[in-house]
C-alpha cells in the first residue's frame, strides 16, 4: 500500500519550524466550502505542537483518499529536522485491499474458466483501480512535501508575511 517517508533539514530552529507548520494549518472544523476566489487559505487541516504534527491536505471537499501526514520536528545542530511519514488512512487501506482482492479474484476466475473477455475487463478494472489509488496518493504526497519544504526554506520575512 502507498507509503512515503522523507526528511527535511532546515536552518530554522525547531520552535521556529513548529510555528511555520502551524501557520500552514487550519484547525478541523474551520475549513469551509466553497472557497472565496482570491483568498488564500492554509493548505492543511490538522494539529501541530512544538514537536509533532498530524495533517491532511485541505482540498475543500471530503476526499477520503487524502493522505495522512504525520511528522516530528527535532532540533539538530544548525537548525531542525522534520521527519515525515505519509500514508493512506486505515479505512481506505482496508476498503482498497478488499476491493482489489475481489476484483482480482473475479478476474483470475474469469480468465481460468475461459471467460476471457470478462476476465480481461476485470483485469483492466484492477489495473485502473490500482493506478488511480497510487497516482492520487503520490501526487498529493509530493505536493505536501513541496509545501513543507517551502515552509522550511522561507526567510523569516516571508514566513511572517505568509501567515
Structure description:
The protein has 4 helices and 6 strands; from the N terminus they run E-H-E-E-E-E-E-H-H-H. The protein has helices at residues 14-23, 90-112, 116-153, 156-161, and strands at residues 3-10, 25-26, 44-48, 52-57, 68-76, 79-87. It has 163 residues and is of the alpha+beta class. Strand 3 and strand 4 form a beta hairpin.
For the termini, the CA-CA separation is 35 Å
Approximate strand percentage: 15-25%
Major sheet strand order: 1-6-5-4-3-2
Shape call: elongated
Average pLDDT metric = 84
What share of the residues lie within helices?
A: 40-55%
Helical stretch count? 4
Poorly predicted parts: 157-163
Radius of gyration from CA coordinates: 20 Å
List keywords for this structure.
alpha+beta, 6 strands, 4 helices, 47% helix, disordered C terminus, six-stranded mixed β-sheet, 163 residues
Write a compact overview of the structure shown.
By secondary structure, the chain is α+β, with helices and mostly antiparallel strands.
Write the layout of secondary structure elements.
Layout: E1 3-10, H1 14-23, E2 25-26, E3 44-48, E4 52-57, E5 68-76, E6 79-87, H2 90-112, H3 116-153, H4 156-161
Parallel strand pairs: 2-3
Antiparallel strand pairs: 1-6, 3-4, 4-5, 5-6
Helix pairs in contact: 2-3
Amino acid at each position: 500500500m502507498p507509503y512515503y517517508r522523507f526528511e527535511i533539514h532546515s536552518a530554522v530552529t525547531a520552535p521556529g519550524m513548529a510555528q511555520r507548520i502551524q501557520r500552514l494549518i487550519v484547525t478541523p472544523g474551520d475549513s469551509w466550502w466553497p472557497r472565496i476566489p482570491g483568498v488564500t487559505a492554509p493548505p492543511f487541516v490538522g494539529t501541530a505542537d512544538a514537536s509533532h504534527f498530524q495533517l491532511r491536505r485541505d482540498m475543500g471537499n471530503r476526499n477520503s483518499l487524502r493522505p495522512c501526514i504525520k511528522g516530528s520536528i527535532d532540533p539538530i545542530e544548525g537548525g531542525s529536522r522534520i521527519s515525515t511519514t505519509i500514508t493512506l488512512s486505515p479505512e481506505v487501506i482496508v476498503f482498497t485491499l478488499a476491493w482489489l482482492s475481489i476484483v482480482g479474484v473475479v478476474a483470475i476466475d474469469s480468465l481460468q474458466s475461459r471467460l476471457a473477455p470478462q476476465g480481461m475487463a476485470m483485469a483492466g478494472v484492477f489495473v485502473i483501480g490500482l493506478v488511480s489509488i497510487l497516482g492520487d496518493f503520490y501526487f498529493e504526497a509530493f505536493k505536501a512535501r513541496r509545501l513543507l519544504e517551502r515552509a522550511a526554506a522561507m526567510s523569516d520575512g516571508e514566513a511572517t508575511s505568509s501567515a
